[in-house]
Specification:
With 368 residues, the chain is mostly beta strands. The chain has a single domain (15-367), classed as TolB, C-terminal domain (Neuraminidase). The protein contains no helices and 28 strands. The chain has strands spanning 15-17, 36-41, 49-56, 69-75, 86-90, 96-101, 117-123, 129-133, 150-154, 160-164, 172-179, 183-190, 196-199, 202-216, 224-240, 244-246, 248-253, 259-263, 268-272, 282-283, 288-291, 298-303, 309-313, 318-322, 328-333, 342-347, 354-358, 363-367. Residues 1-26 have low confidence and may be disordered.
Amino acid sequence: MMIVAMAAVVTLAFVPSAFPSRSKAPSAFIDRFKTVSQVASTVPSNGDVNPYGVAVVTRSTGHLVAGDTLVSNFNAKSNVQGTGTTVVQVSPGGHTTLFSHVAKLPAGMRCPGGIGLSTALSVLPDGYVVVGSFPSTKGGALPTPKPAGCLIVLSSQGRPVETLTNAQISGPWDMTATATATTATLFVSNGMTGTTKMRNGTPFSGKCTVARLELALRGGHPPKLTKTTVIGKNFPWIANKPTFILSETGLALGHNGTLYVDDTETNAVSEIAHALTRTSAVSANTTMISSRGSLNAPLGMMLAPNGDLIVDNGNNGNLVEITPAGKQIATVTLVKKGAGDLFGLAVKPGGKGILFVNDGANALDLDH
């Protein structure tokens, strides 16, 4: 989303804001929270803006502190999309520090097209952090998929130690993960895999995929990619200057092993059954469980403690709660007139709120 740049890192106390009306479904997870507060600015000293990815740290190691929240920035200080290079770390009390600045990769690592850190952001149990890069070309235009971008593995000190790139990773846009002590599985929504139509030499529209990446965790060594499988296909995407791209975005892994995918262009949520084990790709148009209604350019998505899906809208600043069966049961306004303000979100530890980025304010906020 295009927003106004801010100048410096600041530390903010919780500042309650007036809250709009909410739905009345007592069983909905999102209806138990009544106040939105700003936790902290997400702008580091280099001026990066447009916070996208959100991931909560569950175990302290290296520079990572349990209970803190990592946030990736998509825009540089110039406000050009797909040029951000920083991940910041925000404490529950509102202190922001720079976790990683990926201005340049070490020798031997490659990320086709360069760096533009996206919503794809996960913390693995051994302290490694994986963040997606979906870089733009001149003026913020979509890159040509060859493929475009990569996944960057950061150490617990925030240093790039490895990149993951292959033909099934192109424009990694969002990600969710599950792990054991020795393995991790990443699910990645690719903005620009599959077919691509060009206009005046620039990618314009096409169909894209969801990939499952299997990693071996190796006790103090960077994780090793062992297998990549495309498990979802035919998700439509189209270039969109204000928002960079309208594509499959949010991912959430259900308790039953079903992966849920929201699509910004079609205002829909689809499901991919047996996501951890399937060997073939299902088509988006045959697996849709919920569409339109309160969905309005859905972007970020997470799994609530009650098993429901929580989706935020890019066009109006609302949250929508959806059951695994696809029923929309509640809608909440997080940001009034919030078109372009919401993207990544996560459950606060203990289920005590919803952490989300506010792109309009370049901040991490809390619904509690």
